Amino acid sequence: MSDYFEYVERLFKGGEKREPPLKGVKVIEMTHYVYGPTVGAVLAQFGADVVKVEPMGEGDRFRLGAVWMRMFKKGQLQFLTLNANKYLITLDARSRKAREILLKLVAKADVFIENFRAGLLDAVGLGYLQLSKINPKIIYVSCSGYGQYGPLSRAPSFDVSAQGIIGVAMKSGWPDVDEFYKLPDYFGDYFPAMVAAAAVISALYYRERTGKGQYIDISQAESLFRFFYDITYLTLTGEEIGKTGNVDPLAIASGIFATSDEKFVAIAIMDEEQLLAISRAMNIDLVSQYKDKLRSKECINELSDLISKWVSSRTLDEIMNYAKTYGFPASPVFADFDVYKDPWRWERGSIIEFDDRIYGKVHIPVLPIHLSATPPKIKWLARPVGYHNKLILKKWLGYTDEEIKKLEEEGIIGYWDQAPGMCPPDAWDIGNDPVFKGEKDECE
């Protein structure tokens, strides 16, 4: 068996140069905050050339939304990683010349992504109806709160509102406490974005076979709704599952339990074999005692209480040793520093040390997708507002330096001001950056 694990590790850690799966795919992205940009981030890490078009001035408003206003070298750290591998340009979409540039980019693109309120881009002539006439093979992706049609389609939405309306928040918390909580860290943005990325890849494959583009409508709330089985349960039983706290209603016993050394452990007993294993560790015959009522609500609560009392008199290390010795599922409950220091994540490459030529070394999480032949990759962090204007206008559209200078003078394209989140680090040397000048690409 050890030969298998060694073989697989070599397979995924192979040092040879491997081509990204979406090499050559061109994407235009008009997105902001987290939901839409995450779709482009997935495609970019798989090798697509993603051009993010930002409005003049402040750019994507998410640039200004740092956690507790903590910036990193004048950059918003989440923005830097969420928009890694993207070419960032600005256009004043109100001007005729800027729209002409955008339409030229669309004509060369394979995918167009937007996450504005439903119908907004169509109203300004940038909807699927208009862009598909310019490029019939375009795959147009609209990421909105409630979809492009239906009674809620015109309503705005963010992570917490989507979690509220589809029942995620109602299910969180304790059954006997009248309080509700959202899942943290933009779950309502990241999960729908992964759904959208999967849809794009499916549409690319369909276009490869048929030559046809299509319109993709992804609803944030609808994506989260598909994640739950509550409605089927409700219609068959007439009952709501409701709040379950840390208990899994499909398990024999489960929960998060406090240890004697003031730490926590997560334990899930899903079948009789695992129940027998923890019974041996606890030195109690739980199988015979509860055999006739396994998985009933009463049984789950009673077993969870017994496990809680047993765990409370032992340290976390003791519980983990029991789990390893007897063979039941258990894991420590980690805080951020624990996660960061955990060698498993570094060994798997889910956290990497990335050395960016502008921002320097930073430790960041990467896509949790391991492909042996075509793995995703971080190549550069997000850049300041308008940083790739010259590069994209030259490389994609063949503009000359004189033409670009005229666009700058006319206010058609623009760059950052000195506000944190929009501007480069103080140490950056603008005069000696060939990428900013459009003389070479990021990875040349």
Rg over C-alpha atoms, rounded to the nearest angstrom: 26 Å
CATH class of the largest domain, named Alpha Beta
Return the domain count. 2
**Distance between the terminal alpha carbons, to the nearest Å?**
42 Å
Low-confidence stretches: none
Total strand segments: 11
CATH architecture of the largest domain: 3-Layer(aba) Sandwich
* Overall mean pLDDT: 92
Helix/strand order: HEHEHEHEHHEHHHEHHEEHHHHEHHEEHH
CATH fold-type name of the largest domain? Rossmann fold
Category by helix and strand content: alpha/beta
What overall geometry do the principal axes of the alpha carbons give? Answer: globular
Oligomer: single chain
* Strand-residue proportion: 5-15%
Biggest sheet descriptor? 6 strands, parallel
CATH superfamily of the largest domain: Crotonobetainyl-coa:carnitine coa-transferase, domain 1
Helix count?
19
Fraction in helix: 25-40%
Order of the strands making up the biggest sheet:
3-2-1-4-5-6
Folded structure, characterized:
The protein folds into 2 domains: 2-226 and 357-432, Crotonobetainyl-coa:carnitine coa-transferase, domain 1 (Rossmann fold, 3-Layer(aba) Sandwich); 253-258 and 264-332, no CATH class. The protein is built from 19 helices and 11 strands. The protein has helices at 2-12, 35-45, 77-82, 96-107, 120-123, 128-134, 159-165, 168-171, 187-210, 220-225, 230-237, 272-282, 286-290, 297-312, 316-326, 336-341, 343-348, 389-395, 401-409; strands spanning 26-30, 49-54, 86-90, 111-114, 139-144, 214-219, 253-258, 264-269, 330-332, 351-356, 360-365. Strand 2, helix 3 (77-82) and strand 3 (86-90) form a beta-alpha-beta unit. Helix 2 (35-45) packs across helix 9 (187-210) and helix 12 packs across helix 15. The longest helix has 24 residues, at 187-210.
